[in-house]
Amino acid sequence: MGRIVAIVGRPNVGKSTLFNRLTESRSAIVDDESGVTRDRQYGKSEWNGMEFSLIDTGGYVEGSDDIFESEIRKQAKLAIDEADIILFVTDVQQGITALDEEVARMLRSSKKNVLLVVNKSDGSAQFITAMEFYSLGFEEYFPVSAMNGSGTGELCDRIVELLPGDDVEQTNPDIPRLVVVGRPNVGKSSLINAFIGEDRNIVTDQAGTTRDSLETRYQKFGFDFYLVDTAGMRKRAKVSEDIEFYSVMRAVRAIEYADVCIVMLDASRGIETQDLNIFHLALRNSKGVVILVNKWDLVEKDSNTAKEFEKVLRERLAPFVDVPVIFISALNKQRIHKAIETAIEVHHNRIQKIPTSKLNEVMLPEIEHNPPPATKGKYVKIKYITQLPTHTPSFAFYANLPQYVKEPYKRFLENKLRKHFSLTGVPINVFLRKK
Ligand code: GDP
Ligand code: GDP
C-alpha cells in the first residue's frame, strides 16, 4: 500500500478547487509547465508531517463540462485500480445526482478506502443538508468547503490515519531501492533485462506485508539492490486508452517506493517535456536521481557530441544540475554497470550523515569569507550548522536573524555544501533557524 490519493467526481463539484486547496502548501509538481502537460493534476500534500501524492483524475478528461457518463466511470475505475485512497467529491448545493449514485456503487464495490467529500458546505445550512449524503452508502462523510477551506482539516486527518506507516522502510535501509523511470520506449525494460539477464537472480521477495509486492532484491556482479518493479505495475493497467494517466500514476507510485530514480532518456529523441516532468517528480519527492541517456549507439558522434549533449541537457535541468549523467546503450550493454554503480553511490550520498564537527569546520570559514549581506543595517551571524535527522539531507544553519537570509544566499550555502561533500544526485534542503 502506498500513498496515492485520487480525487473522483462529476464535473463542477469542485475537484480541482479541492486539489488546489490540499496542495497549496506545496506547489503542484508540474506547476510552471503550460499547455501540453495540463498543469495541476498531481501534487504532493503534507499534513501533520505525513506526505501523500494527490491526483485529480478529472484533470485528465478533456472538455470536462460536457463529459459523458462513460468518462466518469472510466475515471472511477482508474482510481480504483491505481489509487490507495479515493476522495469521492459531491456537491451539496446541487444534491445527489444519478451519476453520483452510479459512481458510489462502483466505489463501494471496490476494496479501496473511499472518503465521501460533500463539497460546497460553505455554511451551517449546507452542513445540515450534507447529512443526506449518507444515502450514498458510505460509513462517513466529510462536509467541506474547498473554496474557504472549512472541513478540510478533518478530511486530511482521516487521510493521514488511513495512510500506511513507513512500511516502505521495512526492508534493509542500507540497500538502495532503485527504479527505472522514463517515457514509453526509452528502453527501460531493455536496461533491466540487460542487467538482470535471463536468470533473474532473485534473492528474496520483499517480505510479503502487502498484497502488492513491488520490489525484488538482486545481488549481482557485486551489487546489492532492490529494483522497484514497474513491470508488475504495468500488468495491472488494462485500459489501453489513458496511457498518459497510467504512466503518470505508475511513475508517481514507482518514485514513491524508490530511494534513487534512474531517469532514462532516449538520445535519438533529445530531451522532451515529459522527460523533464519525470525528473521534477523525482526531485519533488526528494529522491536521488541519476540520468541515463540511452540509445547512445544510435547517435552519430564525434569527440564533442557527448559534451554538447550534456551541456544542453543540464541547461534544461537547471537549477538542479548536480546530477550524474551517463550515456549508455542498453542494447549493447554499454556502461550499464556504471549506471547501477552510480545509482548506488547516489543512494549513499543521500543516506549519509555528516558529523556536525565536520560541517562546522568546513562551512563556517566559507561563511566567514562570504557572509550573508547585511539587511537594513543588521548583520546576520551564522553560529553553527547541523544536519537534521531526516530522510533527505537537510541542513539547519543557526543564526541570530535567520529571516534576513534570502534565497540567493541559501543557494550559495547549498553550492558550498555540494562542493565540500558528496551530494551529487541528491536534492537537499537548507534551513535557517533562530539560534
Ligand atoms: P471540477 O470540475 O470538479 O474540478 O470543479 P471546479 O473545482 O472547477 O469547481 C467548479 C465550480 O465550483 C467553480 O466555480 C468553483 O469556484 C466552485 N466551487 C468549488 N468549491 C466550492 C466550494 O467549496 N463552495 C462553493 N460555493 N463553490 C465551490
Ligand atoms: P520501455 O518502454 O522504456 O521499457 O522501452 P523498451 O526497453 O521496450 O525499448 C523500446 C525500444 O527501444 C525497443 O525496440 C528496444 O529494442 C529499443 N532500445 C532499447 N534500448 C536501446 C539502445 O540502447 N539502443 C537502441 N538502438 N535501441 C534500444
Structure overview:
By secondary structure, the protein is an alpha/beta fold. The protein has helices at residues 15-23, 69-82, 98-109, 124-129, 152-162, 188-196, 230-236, 243-257, 273-284, 305-317, 336-351, 356-369, 407-420, and strands at 4-8, 42-47, 50-56, 85-91, 113-119, 141-143, 177-181, 202-205, 215-220, 223-228, 260-266, 288-294, 325-327, 382-387, 394-399, 429-434. It contains 13 helices and 16 strands. The protein has a seven-stranded mixed β-sheet with strand order 8-9-10-7-11-12-13, with helices on both faces. α2 (69-82) runs parallel beside α3 (98-109) and α12 (356-369) packs across α13 (407-420). It is globular and about 65 Å long. The protein starts with a strand and ends with a strand. The structure holds guanosine-5'-diphosphate (GDP) (2 copies). One guanosine-5'-diphosphate binds next to α6.
Provide the residue-averaged pLDDT: 83
Count, helices? 13
Alpha carbon gap, first and last residue: 40 Å
The percentage of residues in β strands lies in 15-25%
Written as H for each helix and E for each strand, in order along the chain, the element string is EHEEHEHEHEHEHEEEHHEHEHEHHEEHE
Radius of gyration: 24 Å
Helix and strand composition category: alpha/beta
How does the overall form come out from the CA principal axes? globular
Give the % helix.
25-40%
Number of strands: 16
Biggest β-sheet: strands ordered side by side in the sheet:
8-9-10-7-11-12-13
Instruction: Extract low-pLDDT stretches.
Output: 25-40, 198-213, 232-241
Largest sheet: 7 strands, mixed
Bound molecules: guanosine-5'-diphosphate
